[in-house]
């Protein structure tokens, strides 16, 4: 035990002198303290009631010198509590003194006063007269004493036993200190008031107590307690006028002096008070609670059983306790105000954060909608420009091809008439002409007639093909059909395939791409034809791109299947046997700006806009089914009736 005491005080001494030595010695001090603490921790683990608070006080001091203020404050409180619970009054005094010095160094004088006062009375209870004198000389302003003359004149150079012999036996300083500590340890206002009223009533010998608080000039009753077989306190009052002797209370408010009634029968000053007339207390005490001259509350105590219950010694005890009560009430109020402020601040921060999040979400949604609108406008303009170009080209080509087609018929007729004329001339010519005979042999008139007939047939077939292509281009663009209209889905697919025909043909890098058509019996579908053709073009173009990069070599194929589902929905399935996609890519394929193509080869808008056209414009569905190496299938489902 002696070695443990040496360990404890040696560490405290090193830390107390830490700031006065050079940095090199400071490191040595900390090293020694940490070594001492390892041993102290082992003792604390085996006998915490004897050593835990010692270990925590040294930890607090070490945190203090290292500038870890929050850690220091926590360990100080633990050390004080542990020393108090296990009866180490002298080490409780040391801990209170050290924490008071700690808060004083931080400029928190009010807090330092409470701890220095606790240290002072702990030293009194321990009988450390030299230490008591030391605190009075160095920190007299931090020690809160009673204002009662008899108490202030006590010679603190004597031991506690001599103090208690000089005053009444009822003035038990140990009880006062323990009660004061109980009050000082509570920071929550309602709990503090409950403990405070029970302690004050118990020490004063009252069976009813009322506390009246001064709340910035507004007086309110936060608590009223009754003692008996089962103590009870109330915090809500139906009628305040009937709960208090207002003439007594008003006198204390005005004079800030204690009113004491030890025998109501002989009292004349307050004899007419309705409360006193009704309740007839045997003894009554109403005293102000002051803190540095500030009137913060008043205490009303009653005894309904005995006259003269509030003796001078009990009043002295009350005055001692009310000094600490005033400090604790103010601290609890500050703590409550701080809690309310923090709560309100947190609520405001939460509210503003939520508002900012909502605005941010609105902005994100607005931005997304703007992006979608922008991409749709771009694609619409793109398709509109394409449609106008296609329509314009079709119109310009249509005029000359119509002229050529119609003139082929006339040319054929004129040619046949010329042949007939030549034949007629031959039959009716009476003489022969050698030049004409030679020319007829040279041109082989019979062969010329047969071959020229074939030329006319070929020209007519070509012009008809061009007319068909022009009609397909005009049907694909459908510039005059932007609204809902019943159309042949197969016609739209065929027109799209015709536009993409050049991409389906074989080239140097791959063979021809085969188109497998499995057309079902589809009724006319009510839709926006130009937009739906745009979807077909995008899906088929993507399928061709996938097959172009495929490594299967031969057998490249795109299948188009149409069918009616549930008699209400038209389903168009476009599948390729290309490279396919991963599951993640398949799930994201309809997102804006997402593409599986190399950088610079795709915008990521085609399928996104196609999805918008199918789902929003046609109230249908667009699905993607794909596996790596197994190809990709896009399924379009739209209502037949629109």
With helices defined by DSSP (H or I, 4 residues minimum), what is the helix count?
A: 21
Instruction: Provide the helix percentage.
Output: 55-70%
Q: How does the major sheet shape up?
A: 6 strands, antiparallel
Rg for CA atoms: 53 Å
Shape: elongated
Structural class by helix and strand composition: alpha+beta
User: Which strands sit side by side, in order, in the main sheet?
Assistant: 3-2-1-6-5-4
- The count of DSSP E runs of length 2 or more, i.e. the number of strands, is 13
Please identify the oligomeric state: single chain
The stretches of 5 or more residues where confidence is low (pLDDT under 50) are 146-171
Strand portion: 5-15%
N-C termini distance: 95 Å
Average pLDDT metric: 80
Summary keywords:
five-stranded mixed β-sheet; 13 strands; 642 residues; alpha+beta; six-stranded antiparallel β-sheet
Fold and architecture overview:
By secondary structure, the protein is an alpha+beta fold. Helix content is 60%, strand content 13%. It has 21 helices and 13 strands. The protein has helices at 2-16, 23-46, 48-65, 69-85, 89-105, 109-126, 129-138, 149-152, 160-166, 173-185, 189-204, 246-255, 274-279, 312-428, 434-443, 445-477, 489-499, 501-504, 529-548, 583-588, 606-617, and strands spanning 208-215, 218-226, 232-234, 259-261, 283-291, 294-303, 485-487, 514-518, 525-527, 557-565, 569-576, 621-627, 631-639. The protein has a six-stranded antiparallel beta sheet with strand order 3-2-1-6-5-4, sandwiched between helices. A hairpin with a 2-residue loop joins strand 5 (283-291) and strand 6. The longest helix is centred in the middle third of the chain and has 117 residues, at 312-428. The two termini are 95 Å apart.
């Amino acid at each position: 035990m002696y070695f443990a005491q040496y360990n404890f005080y040696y560490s405290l001494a090193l830390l107390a002198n830490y700031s006065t030595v050079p940095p090199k010695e400071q490191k040595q001090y900390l090293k020694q303290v940490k070594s001492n603490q390892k041993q102290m921790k082992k003792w604390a683990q085996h006998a915490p009631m004897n050593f835990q608070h010692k270990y925590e006080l040294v930890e607090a001091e070490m945190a203090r010198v290292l500038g870890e203020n929050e850690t220091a404050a926590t360990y100080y409180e633990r050390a004080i509590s542990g020393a108090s619970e296990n009866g180490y009054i002298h080490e409780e005094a040391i801990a209170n003194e050290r924490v008071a010095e700690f808060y004083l160094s931080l400029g928190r004088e009010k807090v330092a006063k409470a701890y220095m006062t606790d240290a002072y009375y702990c030293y009194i209870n321990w009988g450390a007269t030299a230490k008591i004198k030391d605190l009075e000389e160095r920190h007299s302003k931090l020690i809160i004493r009673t204002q009662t003359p008899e108490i202030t004149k006590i010679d603190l150079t004597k031991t506690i036993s001599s103090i208690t012999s000089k005053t009444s036996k009822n003035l038990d300083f140990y009880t006062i200190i323990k009660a004061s500590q109980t009050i000082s340890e509570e920071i929550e206002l309602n709990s503090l008031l409950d403990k405070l009223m029970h302690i004050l009533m118990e020490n004063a010998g009252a069976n009813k107590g009322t506390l009246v608080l001064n709340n910035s000039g507004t007086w309110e009753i936060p608590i009223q307690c009754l003692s008996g077989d089962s103590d009870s306190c109330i915090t809500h009052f139906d009628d305040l006028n009937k709960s208090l002797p207002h003439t007594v209370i008003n006198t204390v408010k005005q004079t800030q002096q204690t009113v004491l009634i030890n025998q109501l029968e002989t009292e004349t000053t307050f004899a007419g008070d309705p409360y006193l007339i009704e309740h007839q207390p045997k003894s009554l005490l109403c005293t102000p609670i002051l803190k540095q001259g500030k009137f913060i509350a008043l205490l009303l105590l009653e005894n309904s059983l005995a006259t003269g219950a509030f003796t001078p010694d009990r009043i002295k005890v009350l005055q001692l306790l009310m000094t600490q009560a005033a400090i604790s009430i103010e601290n609890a109020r500050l703590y409550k105000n701080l809690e309310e402020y923090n709560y309100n601040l947190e609520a405001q921060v939460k509210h503003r954060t939520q508002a900012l999040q909502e605005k941010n979400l609105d902005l994100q949604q607005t931005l997304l909608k703007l992006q979608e609108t922008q991409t749709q406008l771009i694609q619409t303009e793109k398709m509109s420009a394409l449609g106008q170009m296609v329509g314009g080209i079709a119109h310009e080509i249509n005029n000359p091809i119509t002229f050529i087609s119609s003139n082929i018929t006339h040319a054929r007729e004129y040619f046949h008439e010329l042949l007939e004329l030549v034949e007629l001339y031959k039959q009716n010519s009476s003489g022969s002409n050698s030049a004409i005979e030679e020319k007829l042999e040279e041109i082989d008139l019979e062969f010329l007639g047969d071959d020229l007939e074939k030329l006319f047939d070929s020209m007519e077939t070509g012009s008809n093909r061009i007319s068909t292509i022009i009609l397909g281009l005009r049907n694909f663009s459908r510039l005059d059909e932007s609204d809902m209209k019943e159309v042949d889905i197969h016609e739209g697919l065929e027109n799209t395939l015709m536009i993409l025909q050049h991409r389906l043909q074989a080239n140097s890098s791959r063979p021809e791409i085969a188109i497998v058509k499995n057309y079902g019996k589809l009724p006319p579908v009510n839709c926006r034809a130009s937009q739906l053709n745009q979807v077909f073009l995008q899906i088929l173009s993507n399928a061709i791109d996938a097959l172009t990069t495929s490594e299967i070599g031969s057998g490249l194929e795109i299948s188009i299947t149409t069918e009616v589902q549930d008699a209400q929905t038209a389903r168009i399935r476009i599948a390729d046997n290309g490279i396919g996609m991963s599951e993640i890519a398949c799930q994201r394929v309809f997102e804006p700006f997402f593409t599986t193509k190399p950088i610079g080869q795709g915008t990521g808008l085609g399928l996104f806009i196609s999805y918008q056209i199918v789902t929003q414009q046609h109230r249908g569905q667009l699905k993607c089914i794909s596996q790596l190496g197994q190809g990709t299938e896009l399924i379009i489902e739209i209502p037949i009736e629109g």
